[in-house]
Amino acid sequence: MDGTLSLPVLGSINVNNLTLRELTSILTQGYGIYVRRPIVSVGLSSPRPITVSLSGEISKPGTYTLSATSQSQGGNSNNGALRFPTVTDIIQQAGGVTANASVESVQIKRFFQGQERMVVVDLWDLFKMVISNKI
To answer: What is the C-alpha separation between 82 and 21, in angstroms, rounded?
Structure first.
């Protein structure tokens, strides 16, 4: 659980902050020294939960931890497909928005590699789309 893989021939490999694609490439190159055209398959048994903080016009502001869930397709809930939490899932878990909330300009801030990134999302457009699809 320290972010290290111990593999035959290659030894210990630190996989912290690598995507599955990056790890696949590293392993393919590493084993490529010993095997012609190695076939490498990498997957997650379960992704780590995400922690988000909600503030502003939210019914229950605070910090929430959410995990990916299994997604059912064709009645089979154990097919390996994962559904990751969406912005609306997180807002719903926090009890929704207050009457004063400006859902047309929800700010999402994320820290990635030491830098803050922000995107503004218009949830009102999303709500209108969901409602029109149900009519």
So the answer is: 17
Q: Are 120 and 103 in contact (CB under 8 A)?
A: no
Taken in order 7, 82, 25, 3, is the CA torsion positive or negative? Answer: negative
In angstroms, what is the C-alpha Rg of the chain?
Answer: 20
Side chain identity, residue 33: I
Contact by Cβ (8 Å): 81, 73: yes
Q: Say what the pLDDT of residue 77 is.
A: 47
Structure tokens at 50: 């995400």
Phi/psi for 123 (5° steps) reads -70, -25
Instruction: Please list the residues that pair with 72 across neighbouring strands.
Output: none
Sequence-ordered alpha helix ranges (H) in 19-69:
20-32
What is the reported pLDDT for 35?
Answer: 93
The model's pLDDT over 48-64, given as tens digits with 9 standing for 90+, comes to 788 888 888 889 989 98
Chain centroid to Cα 82, Å, comes to 10
